Amino acid sequence: MSPKTDQSVSTVIRERHSVRKYDANYKIAREEIEDILNGAILAPSSSNLQPWRFIIIDNEEVKKELRLIANNQEPIETSSAVIAVLGDKEMYMNIEKVYRSGYEAGFMDEENVNRLMHNANSLYPNISEEVRKNIASFDAGLVSMQLMLIAKEKGYDTVPMGGFDKVKFIERFNVSERYMPMVLIAIGKAAAPPFKTTRIPLKDIAEFI
């Protein structure tokens, strides 16, 4: 079971730090990782098309392979698992599934389903792939941050890693051309305190108008 504690969102945000030293003997059950992901995918996304997919690597031998692809970063191998977040460039393929599901759940009527499907089908297949990549990248960031906060609330630590060979990752894990590897998130129990960081003062980056 996870060492979950009762913390406010504000506390979780302030206590979450990127951890790079993990207890290699600590294993998180797949059911717990699924629970974290089920919370993460409640994140918002453009037109609710949820342009994300996940590959969870918890096999020790496969993690060793992944470490070579990810610039030999230690957390890849010592964490309980690595969650690869992929962006879906063809999120429009989800349109009917998403909106029909909303209808079946009683969240919208047939008229609204048809309107939303028509609008989405008129937009997403016709915009450039570059724009769709940007949308998928943004939404993958939202789901990734939510994932890390939920993990921390459950007592686990994480670190997001963008430094990996995405071409080699695609080849090793047979990733379809539809998907873009965005980030690797190591998750586990810290074996050493995180390296603390500061932030640029708000007065230097925000203004009221």
Structure description:
Belongs to the nitroreductase family. This is NAD(P)H nitroreductase. Keywords: Oxidoreductase. The longest helix is centred in the last third of the chain and has 25 residues, at 129-153. This protein has a single domain (9-13, 21-192), classed as NADH Oxidase. α1 (9-15) packs across α7, α2 (30-40) crosses α7 and α5 (95-104) runs antiparallel to α6 (110-123). Helices cover 44% and strands 14% of the residues. The model has no long low-confidence stretch (mean pLDDT 96). The chain contains 9 helices and 4 strands, in the order ααβααβαααβαβα. It has a 4-stranded antiparallel β-sheet, with helices on both faces. By secondary structure, the chain is α+β, with helices and mostly antiparallel strands.
Question: What is the share of helical residues?
Answer: 40-55%
Tally of helical segments: 9
Q: What's the pLDDT, averaged over the residues?
A: 96
Q: How big is the Rg? A: 19 Å
List its salient traits.
oxidoreductase, Nitroreductase-like, globular, 4 strands, 44% helix, 14% strand, four-stranded antiparallel β-sheet, Nitroreductase, 209 residues, alpha+beta, 9 helices, NAD(P)H nitroreductase, NADH Oxidase
Topology diagram in text:
Elements: H1 9-15, H2 30-40, E1 52-57, H3 60-69, H4 74-78, E2 81-88, H5 95-104, H6 110-123, H7 129-153, E3 157-161, H8 166-172, E4 179-188, H9 202-205
Antiparallel strand pairs: 1-2, 2-4, 3-4
Structure in a nutshell:
This protein is α+β, with helices and mostly antiparallel strands.
